[in-house]
Amino acid sequence: MVFSELFESALAKKSKSSSLPISKGDDRAKAQKPEKNSVKERQPRPESRKRNSDDRNHDKKHSNSKRQRSHSKKPLSAEAIELTKQLQDCSRRKRLDEALHLYRSQKNDFIRDGHHACILVDCCARCGNVEEAEKVIDALGDDCNVETNTALMKAYAHSGRILQAMQLFRKMIKLAKEKPNVRTLNTLLRGCLWTASVSVSVSGKNDELCGGVVSSEEAWELFSKNVGAEHVDVSSYEYSAVILCQALRTEDALERMKQLQSAYNIVIKGKACISGGDQASLESLAVVNIALARAYALLGDFDSMWTACQRVFSACKLSRSLLEEEMNVTELESPVSKRQLKKQQAVGGKRAWKKVSDEGASQRKSSNNTYRNHRLTEMENEAKELVRLRKQKDKGDLLEQVRCGLLKRLFYFGGGGTTDLLKASQASSASVASDFSSPLWYSFGLAEVMQSTTQNRLSSDTKPIVSGSGKNTASAVGSQGTLVLNQVFDNPNLPIDVEIGAGFGDWIVRQTSVRQDRNHIAVELRADRVAQIFAKGMLGLNMSSSKRLCVVGSDAGSFLAFRLPQERSISTFFANHPEPPTQTFGENQSELGAIVDGGSEPAHMLNSATMISMAKCLKTNGRIVIVTDNRWYARLLSMTALRALLVLGKEGVRLKSESSIALSKGGFRKVETFSSGTEMVELLEGQPNEQIGHIPYDPTSEGGASYFDRLWRSGGGSHAERKSRFVLVLRRIR
């Protein structure tokens, strides 16, 4: 569908209000909600049926009841238990080849069951191998249960294959038994959160619009009608409401939030007087309201934005108070009762195991408490920024800035939930390239933005990037779906910096604001983060600065291979605190050494193929700058870079590791050297600064340069005590 058709259909729709209701009894949003987007209204629950968010495990328990009954009839053998442990260990370490070998070994022919198949499918999902997961499911036939199908759903969601996920969900809905449970629904909703709505070719049928808000609303409707709305949990409400907010569908998001309030006995009186609920449901309420505030800001509705921010403050305050109470109770109570201890001793009788188990549980509880507090603080800080924005932005100017940004500098080529390098084929890349309008229109709010203006014709500055046919791209995107960089930016002569895995966008937006002599591209896999980066760019930058920031939704591999084909086009690639693979890889030095020799690599974004692709896109003297706080991962990256140097040298591309001597003025020191033949990589340590392209910041000031800096300051993360970072700098010589 092309922009002209989408725009005409939007104009035909009834104009609707998006103001935030002030009191509990205000049903204006409900009354004006379009019929086609509505979810069947659930009757208010009696007080006896009001839920605590801990009930989200209800369906999980029921989904396992069948297997538990079978166990009571026939206890599992020691061999079956051992196979379970081995497969779970392979899944945790992302060792798919080992898991497949174990599962298919002849010695396990009479041992493996559906539970083992479920673990293997989950391992396939964690490793991004959907094809192997499908083979396991096909072999099970009618014996496939809801847990195994949910594991396959996870594989589809993480790889961004929402069409297959929706087809599986529809199939499960029709089953007499093994219908989807709340875990299945939430897995699918997470996949919708991570992707945007695109038109996908279906064999023998018309193209189907799937992913993002389109699929999430269909899934919600199907689950509510066929399984029951009473089975959804607090995460279900949060995911679906946030997806609606990303699409700027504020009325529908408000309706979903009302259902959340009803389900968990949360009452909002006046503007922001909140009572009821528990820690988890109040935290979800804050998440939805900050997403609403962000949406209102982009639409220029500053009054509703202010009210939503006040509700964020109230919900965060209550949630934090309950979180502290939970922690105090946990510290006062004995971690394991005598009855539990006796049961554990009957099972194993190993006091050492119990001590380790208790200490691990306590550590996880403390870590979770730190993360929850940090999440609440992040929302409060964003709400404060939005409140300040109310006095700085003009509604008309902001709407024009957002509209221009959506049409000219936001591109969605695909997404998913894993940061691993996706194996994208040329064919799949071309199929996504044919539909640029749907993601912008449905998932990123262009439809709502267009309805917020009285102009029926677009100015020349906001000319759509796709032509009237919807199949051939205009000047900003080439005919093969590649970015034409001198058309993306108003001043194409400026150097271009790219951040791979831009996360929530704090770092790249700050760079864009300060470094006005450069253009910037943020590349992020997850669509929900793409939406946040775009919002921060529009709300945190003025019109002039926002024109130097381009936001791209894509995995790193296909972006470098298919969207930046021009060699020598980029000045600097940045990767800030990339997510490491499971740390059991490389526990033996031989595994790290094998990488240099062309051996297997763990699944992560910055593998050797990614580094090689980045090097080929660099201009002469261009750099790759990688920053991490994890020494183990820094060593893995150094060995990976060494392999890239060796491969590139054979192809005539000279990439060299920057030495501590060259970067000594920035205070960097060498901590380790990796070499093979004539090639060498130096791992450095120091505080990121201007010498490696990072703008300086005061670490004692409020905020921090990025999400991770703020997390460290809160005491979170396994490396929070570190005062410096590990740095890897590679420069292209020729």
From TrEMBL:
Main enzyme class: transferase
Region spans: Disordered: 1-78, 349-370
Positions of PPR repeats: 145-179
Biased composition annotated in UniProt, kind: Low complexity: 9-20
Catalyzed chemical reaction(s): guanosine(46) in tRNA + S-adenosyl-L-methionine = N(7)-methylguanosine(46) in tRNA + S-adenosyl-L-homocysteine
Annotated Basic and acidic residues bias: 24-58
Pfam families linked: PPR, PPR_2
EC number: 2.1.1.33
Annotated Basic residues bias: 59-74
Keyword Glycoprotein on entry: no
Molecular function terms from GO: tRNA (guanine(46)-N7)-methyltransferase activity
Keywords: Methyltransferase, Repeat, S-adenosyl-L-methionine, Transferase, tRNA processing
Lyase listed as a keyword: no
NCBIfam families given in the database record: PPR
Protein name: tRNA (guanine(46)-N(7))-methyltransferase
Protein source organism: Fistulifera solaris (Oleaginous diatom)
High-level lineage: Eukaryota, Sar, Stramenopiles, Ochrophyta, Bacillariophyta
